[in-house]
Description:
The chain is 43% helix and 16% strand. The chain folds into two domains: 6-194, Lambda Exonuclease, Chain A, CATH 3.90.320; 280-489, 2-Layer Sandwich (Nucleotidyltransferase, domain 5), CATH 3.30.420.10. By secondary structure, it is α/β, with parallel strands linked by helices. Helix 5 (125-140) crosses helix 6, helix 13 (367-379) packs antiparallel against helix 14 and helix 17 (437-449) packs antiparallel against helix 18. The strands form three sheets. Strands 1, 2, 3, 4, 5, 6 and 7 form a seven-stranded mixed beta sheet that branches. It has a five-stranded mixed beta sheet with strand order 11-10-9-12-13, sandwiched between helices. The termini are far apart. Bound molecules: iron/sulfur cluster (SF4).
Amino acid sequence: MSRPRLSKSKYVIGLQCPRRLWWTVHERGAPELVPDAALRAVFARGNRVGEVAREHVPGGVLIEIDWRRLSHAVRETAKVIADGASVIYEACFAESGVFVAVDVLERAGDGWVLAEVKSTTSAKATHIDDAAIQTHVVEAAGLSVERVEVMHLNRECVFPDLSNLFARTDVTEEVRAHLPEVPARVEELRDCLEGDLPDAEIGDRCKTPYDCPFMGRCWPELPADHIGELFRLGKKKREELTDLGCETIDAIPAETSLTDMQVRQREAVVTGEVVVEAGLPERIRDFELPLTYLDFEAINPVIPVWPGCHPYGQVVVQFSVHHEDADGVVEHREWLAEPGRDPQEESIEELLAATAGARRVAAYHASFERSRINELAKRFPQYAERLGDLAAKLIDLLPVVRGNVYHPGFHGSFSLKSVLPALVPEESYAHLAVADGYTAATALEAYLLAPEAMSDAEREKTRRDLLAYCKQDTWSLVVLARALRGLAGGAG
Length: 492
Ligand code: SF4
């Protein structure tokens, strides 16, 4: 029987955890291996960056890979090299039981430059293993690798000039330092695949460098109110609590030294009641009526598409505003960018109009809104003064909650989606088609950057869903502030 073969990705998976590799290879149909929407978006982004990277190393020959006929791609690569190609995309090699496809292989004198394309904005330590296994295989195939590079996105690039979209970081030295270990690691992993399911200890490896999809199999189910929910629980304190035999928050002895926040958490879990600090009335005073509530939705295209934007630069493409007057009467305003046009200046005009006359502007985790407003002010100095006035009015509900209120239903999280249903159970996002920030950002990117892939009906539905989601976010702030005022009335 032939020995199992590895690919670059399986090698990297095996380095993270041999047990993960074993399941990946021997249970290809495992439900955990079906990529979710988030992972599919990561793959799509990587593919797009890979395609654009080729345009930045022009004149190459692309090896078409049919994953059922890899030997054909390897033969095709050998032929293209023999024919004198100076640049090859997806150059395929299979040696020593490992198959690799090199993103970009460039001839340099008598040798070659091997470039691994990444959609990050810098070369990372985890890229070295990727590059090392490729270098090992390419050299085993008889090519001389003169230099190894990680070709990653360049934060300095500013649309519309995409000539410097990529930066190339020389990692030859780091890769050479890893190479002597590669053959033994390859053999270990191939041996592992020939044996029974290996043991592996759970720990940091399960999340580093990537989240392992098999955590549901290896990690024990945690009891409700596990100590892991304690806010900013350090490793040392966690070990101390574990040594004391505390698995759940309510088991922590009263004399144990904890932060103020953790003490509040323990009290809430032990009593099953919301805990309100005496300082809440003072802190909520800034949020008295009339008050304006603001929420931004932004996208951060990996490859910038609007003037002045960098790779991964955040661009506001939607907002919702609720105004609540002194009598509690609420008005709503909203804006969502249109596909096919630069939303930046329009977002400023709409935002200034929607917040005109506001006494204070409340947001949740307001540093996000503040950063976006400051960026817009820098990019469009003609609006800087008015945007500066708006930024000065921003106040943040998050620290008010975090510093003064804890409900056992928060389960250690102060995100609006955790806080709101605990304090205001009748409010929920459950009825919405878009119900979380990640789904919203993905839908916004599709709606704005690839509208041609949607039918008119899909576009219209996406628009409605996005508007409903953002509106719910500021409505949530209205009811949260009301709930906090109510709690403040009974505090102390
Ligand atoms: S959950 Fe952890 S131990 Fe289990 S397979 Fe994944 S990485 Fe390995």
